[in-house]
Amino acid sequence: MMKSTLALILAAGIFAIACVFTVVTGQAHILNTSVDVPHYDSAGRLVLPDDYREWVFLSAGLDMNYSDSPPVEGRHIFGNVFVPRTAYRAFKKNGVWPDKTILILEDRMGATKGSINKTGQFQTDIAGIEAHVKDLSRFKDGWGFFAFDGTIPADLIDTNSSCYSCHLEHAAVDTTFVQFYPTLLPVAKKLNTLSSSYRLVAERDAGQ
Ligand code: HEC
Predict the structure, then answer these.
(1) By alpha-carbon position, which residue is closest to atom 8 of ligand 1?
(2) CA distance 200 to 12
């Protein structure tokens, strides 16, 4: 009799511990699902998402140059653009980015010499990481730009900087360069969310 009571208490104890464990790990799972939104430290700096390489890959630009100055001879840069899957799916549905979207532009050096390669370019070391964040309650016109120095949290770039004006004037959708993201441009065309300035330029180019 004593023995079976003891066994019962023991079983109840194990059950209670298992319940607590399930709740705790369940919560950890819930916390994990919120990694897709931007995180800021106590000083308001943007924290670099450590898993952006697991997001949807939008495109890689090679040696894209938006200024009139000539490119540096022999120096090649790839620009890889990533966005969380949740934001990507929302864009496919609505043709614009949902609030709290974070896009990462990861620049990597290009190289030709390596292993069996003879021509062309492959990617090597990181040359810079920038972020473009839609946070309607936080930023004046809804979007903020950041440039990371390694993995240190980044300050918001001043709204007078050319990041804002170039993206506002030339980007095809919602101040993002969807004209260079081949799986999203058809979506924006279909859902009619292209900016009027981009449409004008596209029509002019088509007429030439
Ligand atoms: C003269 C125009 C211009 C300026 C200035 C500019 N960008 Fe961009 N940006 C682009 C273009 C074009 C792309 C598309 C790149 C690609 O397709 O690889 C882009 C893409 C991006 C992306 C990827 C997401 C998106 O919005 O499409 C980020 C992040 C970004 N830029 C950050 C910045 C930051 C930070 C600055 C300022 C320090 C900046 N950009 C300044 C033209 C510009």
Answers:
(1) 163
(2) 71
Q: Over the stretch 92-148, which tens digit does the pLDDT of each residue have? A: 999 999 999 999 999 999 999 999 999 999 999 999 999 999 999 999 999 999 999
- Ligand 1 is surrounded, with C-beta below 6 A, by 59, 61, 64, 66, 79, 81, 103, 105, 130-132, 145, 147, 157, 161-163, 166-167, 176-177, 180
Whole-angstrom Cα distance, residue 40 to residue 63?
31
Q: Is the pLDDT of residue 182 over 50?
A: yes
The closest of 143, 135, 131 to 174, measured between CA atoms, is 143
Write out the two tokens for 135: 């946070």
Ligand 1 mean position, distance from CA 177 (Å): 7
176 pLDDT higher than 80: yes
Query: 42-96, pLDDT tens digit by residue?
Result: 999 999 999 999 999 999 999 999 888 888 889 999 999 999 999 999 999 999 9
Question: What is the number of the ligand 1 atom nearest to the C-alpha of 104?
Answer: 29
- For residue 133 the two structure tokens come to 């964040």
User: Does residue 110 contact residue 124 with C-beta atoms inside 8 Å?
Assistant: yes
172 and 184 in contact (C-beta within 8 Å)?
no
